Amino acid sequence: MDFRLETFLPYRLNQAAERVSQRFAAQYRGRYRMTRPEWRALAALGSYGRMTATEIGANSSMHKTKVSRAVRALEEKRWLKRSEDEGDRRVEHLELTPAGKRIYGEMIALAKAYEQEMARLLGDGLRHLEAGLAAIEANLPMQPQRRGPED
Amino acid sequence: MDFRLETFLPYRLNQAAERVSQRFAAQYRGRYRMTRPEWRALAALGSYGRMTATEIGANSSMHKTKVSRAVRALEEKRWLKRSEDEGDRRVEHLELTPAGKRIYGEMIALAKAYEQEMARLLGDGLRHLEAGLAAIEANLPMQPQRRGPED
DNA sequence: TACAGATGGTTACAGGTGTAACTGTCCATT
DNA sequence: AATGGACAGTTACACCTGTAACCATCTGTA
Description:
The structure is a homodimer. Chain A is 66% helix and 8% strand.
């Protein structure tokens, strides 16, 4: 009978994720007018180079419609260009433009600085957190994409 | 220059939160046709008894519009009743009906079982995770509510 | 008493999201 | 060669969410 939402794992994890993500998102939202899906797609392309939309989705755990929209947004910012596949005309290869690569470089600098800041703020807590996350990644299967982070 | 989204803390934390939450949400979504905000409000009311909408928001970290909608949904399910405050007519006191309390009882049983399951699946990882979450809760200020968990 | 600002709660609106349906293309089997 | 199913990617639709504006009420100050 003694139950408190504040101690319930799913709730705490969501809260923590929100705090950590928003703090970082605040650093690029205004500066680059970039949304979280766009940042994820940019990060995937920046670190792996040429990819297809499907690959981006697999790498960054985004639904294909979300990838489709993020890709279009990046394209409109001229940070990404599409090119067609020889042989399979369904596939589009996506790649960052020089401008996109520059933004990516600035973003990973922000990301590294943020990781430093987390390490400083969380101390040993960070090591524990990473061990816990590893356990989840290893033992909880990834459910198929469902409606929203909410609901 | 070596950056991988899969190892970036905000991303990993979001992924983990999503896995853990969806797995639990799957247990009540269909059964009670309840959304996550409704579950949070139900949990707050069930464990603290009579509360105002503002208090629910503070306890469960939900935006006031989200609380407003969740409360209406619970009311339509006849799981919650409103009553007016003597003295301050802006305030509404919210309380679970007997039916609401029954559902709450069933939900906390599910929640406890889920915690057991997590403990079994995550092993020592759970203790580490909790230590990490505690560090975040203690050291990262809660940002004011911003747009969606996404973006 | 009067009034300006704060507060509890709701709602119109704009924007984001997944589902399902769709288009175009490929491939295995016939 | 033809055809049925799989697959890459886009889009119409319904739904959810926060912002901002709003209403009603309260409170402090003059």
